[in-house]
Structure formats: C-alpha cells, structure tokens
TrEMBL record:
<dbReference type="InterPro" id="IPR000209">
    <property type="entry name" value="Peptidase_S8/S53_dom"/>
</dbReference>
<comment type="similarity">
    <text>Belongs to the peptidase S8 family.</text>
</comment>
<feature type="active site" description="Charge relay system">
    <location>
        <position position="226"/>
    </location>
</feature>
<dbReference type="Pfam" id="PF00082">
    <property type="entry name" value="Peptidase_S8"/>
</dbReference>
<feature type="region of interest" description="Disordered">
    <location>
        <begin position="19"/>
        <end position="38"/>
    </location>
</feature>
<keyword id="KW-0720">Serine protease</keyword>
<keyword id="KW-0645">Protease</keyword>
<feature type="active site" description="Charge relay system">
    <location>
        <position position="187"/>
    </location>
</feature>
<protein>
    <recommendedName>
        <fullName>Peptidase S8/S53 domain-containing protein</fullName>
    </recommendedName>
</protein>
<keyword id="KW-0378">Hydrolase</keyword>
<dbReference type="InterPro" id="IPR050131">
    <property type="entry name" value="Peptidase_S8_subtilisin-like"/>
</dbReference>
<feature type="domain" description="Peptidase S8/S53">
    <location>
        <begin position="181"/>
        <end position="420"/>
    </location>
</feature>
<dbReference type="InterPro" id="IPR036852">
    <property type="entry name" value="Peptidase_S8/S53_dom_sf"/>
</dbReference>
<feature type="active site" description="Charge relay system">
    <location>
        <position position="396"/>
    </location>
</feature>
<dbReference type="InterPro" id="IPR015500">
    <property type="entry name" value="Peptidase_S8_subtilisin-rel"/>
</dbReference>
Length: 447
C-alpha cells in the first residue's frame, strides 16, 4: 500500500465528540470569515491587535515584540510593523550616513547570508514617518527599504478563532518509510516538555514555546501552541519524516520579517544539502508595494543555493485575492483552505498565485496544556489537560498538510526531490477556482 492510498485519513471521532467539536469550530470559522471590509469587523480586529500590543509593551524584553499597526488605503487589514525600525537592502559600506537619525539594529542571530539590514530610529516615529523615510531611501538613494514588517501567524488576528479541545485521532504509529526526509516547521517552537503519547517523539526543538509568560500568567498566550499544532499535523500525515521546529516568534505569535528570514535560511543550511521541506504557516503583506525584503532575500537565497529545499506557505485568512508573503514569492508553494466537503473556505485568501488547497476547517492536532482564551472576558474558558488535542481552523493548518504529504512521498523514493514530489502530489487532482488543486489529506470538521 502506498502512502498516498491512505489519504484522506479517516475521522475516528464519535458522533458525540464531533457534535462537541462543531461548536468550537463554528466560532472559529465565524470569526475568520467576518468580512474585513466591514467597519465593525475592522474595529473588532483592531481591538484584539491593541490587546496584544498592550501585552507586548508590558512583557519582559526577551518575550516582547513592540509594534505599530495601521490600515493602509489599499486594504482593510491591520498591517503590523516593528516599532521604529526599517529594513533596507544595503551593504555595510552603504549604511554609514544612509539615513540621519537611524542606527544599525540587526538581531543578535542575524544570518550572515542576508544583505538586508535593520535600521532603528533614535527617536520615536509613527508609521507614517517610517513609511516616508523608507520612501525617501527608495526615491532619493535608489535603495529598497520598507518598514520591518511584523509577521504574525495566520496573519489576521481574530478574537474567537482560538482552538477547542478534542480527542486524539489514533495512537502514534510509524509507517516504515525507506527514505525519510526533513520538514522544518518555522513557527512558535514547541514546548520543552515531552508528551507521553509519543506524538512528539524525535521532534527536534530549535527554540521552545514558553506558552504562558505574559500576564495574567494563568492562561496560554495568544498563538502559543501554534507550532505544536503544526508539528502534529506533519506527524499524522508523514509519521516517519524528521521534524525540526524552529521558533521565530514571541509567545504571542509575533515575529519580524528579519527573524522569519533568518530561521528559513538556518533551516536550509542545517539540512546540509539533504532534501528538506520548509513549512511557513505565517505571512505579511506588501507595504507601499514593497514585499517583506528580508524574507524575499531568504527565498531567493534558498532557491539559488539549496535546490533540494521546497518552501510551502499559508495563503492567509483575509478571504480576498491579496497576496501574502512568503506564499506569493516565486518558487514558494502557496496553500489555501477548503471546507471538509472541498468547497472554498470563506476566510481563505485566493487568486492565481495560490497553487493548491486542502481542508482548513476544524483540523485536529496536538496542542499544549493550559487554559484559553488568553485573557478574561473574551469567551468561554477551555482547559487543555495532559497530552491535549485540539481543533483549529485557518490556512496556517493547510500548509503543514501539504508539507507533510510532500515529505511522505519523498520517504517512499530516495531519488524524488521535494519539488518533483509536489508535482506528483497535485497531478490529476481536481482544481478549485482561485485555490489551485484540491488535495484531500485530513478530514477536518464538517459544519
């Protein structure tokens, strides 16, 4: 039996459990599907962005990602940018005197493979001033520059789209792949504590998810557990592949353009020429027509220097034809979301730049211990015990399914490259308008 013949995987939940899960998933989908063009929806979204901003400003320095947010005229999504920072595509000899009032401020673990640099304003600047300074560099110095984009997980931050508690689909079981490959999950990391059910056995931790380090300290932080959930998806579809989970975010699920780029490059170099699939369940839009410059550079570097690497990325949850990066960069495979009946999910981004899609509504995967929601007075409390499983929705959880399927196909054939495996995966499958090829892997939750 080939691995592909096992797809889609069966749904082993009882009717009672499924009815329970549907309630949580309906809340997730309603939250994700609220039209962003609606003024009330936009205001509600900004309320949650402001909640996270307050938490970050009060957080310990090693857990904080201070940011600014704004809504550009070209769209209605709240765009996030690192406070007082620009990304510039300039070499060291060009930085001196490049922009008065700014000093170099690269992150400590900056990849030496990147040319792009971070400049930080010595005084406080609002988003309008940062964008004007970046434009001045582009127009007068002919140097590409933009705000240092904040790269959230799933991009659109919504209030009630957090996970619901459910049960494990089956015990962990290897399938005996003869040529397993590596999947690098660039995300929040996973917790330092090992599970007792075997679903994280052998998973390599490159940075761990601290789960609840921000006030009120008795609840899971925003987007904590995201990396654990993505890794669990990979293990379900490709149980024999090597999984390495890299952390690039704060515990609230916010990273920067440069941090995401650095982790992508590190993952490619750590693979040391071996076959690798990089899963990027995150993204940011272009600002003033400029895509995230550090990630753009990372994708180009990986394509040129690491031909055995395939990058798979989430298309985003705006419900529009609005390219998100890295998914929309050339060579990256963008993945949208479907309902369990393989019809388009209302929240999924779409367009000619989306290569394929899979079920992204009510996916079941591994989660972390603790209590949600992250703050009081948002919704009903949900407590996750030892070795928990959860239901969650979004394109964040479609990309790791495709990453895992590519890895599983590679595991059967030592000569198959990830790009060739992707082509094999989508060949002969039906298409969905503006969502590429439909690939049915996990059952999701029918509503």
């Amino acid at each position: 039996m080939t691995v592909a013949s096992r797809w889609p995987l069966p749904d082993r939940r009882t009717a009672e459990q499924l009815a329970h899960d549907k309630e949580a998933v309906r809340k997730q989908v309603t939250s994700l599907s609220t039209p962003n063009a609606d003024d009330d929806a936009r205001v509600a979204q900004e309320v949650f962005v402001e909640r996270i901003q307050r938490r970050q400003l009060a957080a310990p320095a090693d857990h904080a990602t201070p940011f600014l947010h704004f809504v550009p005229r070209s769209g209605t999504r709240a765009v996030l940018a690192a406070a007082n920072e620009l990304i510039v595509d300039a070499g060291p000899d060009e930085l001196d005197g490049l922009l008065p009032g700014y000093t170099p401020a690269d992150r400590a673990d900056r990849s030496p493979r990147r040319r792009t640099r971070v400049l930080r304003s010595e005084g406080r600047k609002n988003v309008t001033e940062l964008r004007a300074d970046a434009k001045r560099l582009r127009d007068e110095k002919k140097i590409m520059a933009s705000v240092n984009s904040i790269v959230p997980l799933g991009y659109v931050i919504k209030g009630n789209s957090y996970p619901g508690s459910t049960v494990a689909p089956a015990p962990f079981a290897a399938q005996g792949a003869g040529a397993p490959v590596r999947v690098a999950v660039i995300d929040t990391g996973i917790t330092a504590e090992a599970r007792s059910d075997g679903w994280d056995t052998g998973v390599v931790r490159e940075g761990t998810d601290p789960v609840n380090v921000l006030a009120p300290l008795d609840r899971i932080d925003w987007f904590a557990g995201h990396g654990t959930f993505a890794a669990g998806i990979v293990r379900q579809i490709a149980p024999d592949c090597e999984v390495v989970v890299y952390r690039f975010t704060s515990t609230d699920g916010l990273g920067t353009d440069e941090a995401a780029a650095d982790m992508m490059i590190k993952a490619a170099e750590d693979a040391n020429g071996e076959r690798l699939i990089i899963n990027a369940s995150f993204g940011a839009p272009a600002v003033d027509g400029v895509p995230p410059l550090a990630m753009q550079e990372a994708v180009a570097h990986i394509a040129a220097e690491h031909p055995q690497v395939l990058i798979v990325a989430s298309a985003g949850n705006d419900g529009k034809d609005l390219p998100l990066y890295p998914a929309a960069f050339p060579g990256v495979k963008a993945v949208g979301a479907l309902n369990s009946d393989l019809t388009p999910a209302n929240f999924s981004n779409h367009g000619s730049w989306v290569h394929c899609s899979t079920v992204g509504v009510g996916i079941v995967s591994t989660f972390v211990e603790g209590k949600l929601p992250p703050e009081d007075h948002i919704g009903d409390d949900v407590t996750f015990g030892q070795d928990p499983w959860a239901t969650w929705s979004g394109t964040s959880f479609t990309a790791p399914q495709i990453s895992a399927a590519v890895a599983a196909l590679c595991g059967e054939d030592a000569a198959l490259t990830p790009r060739a495996a992707f082509d094999q995966l989508v060949a002969g499958r039906p298409g969905v308008p503006e969502l590429g090829t439909a690939v049915h892997l996990l059952p999701g939750t029918p509503l």
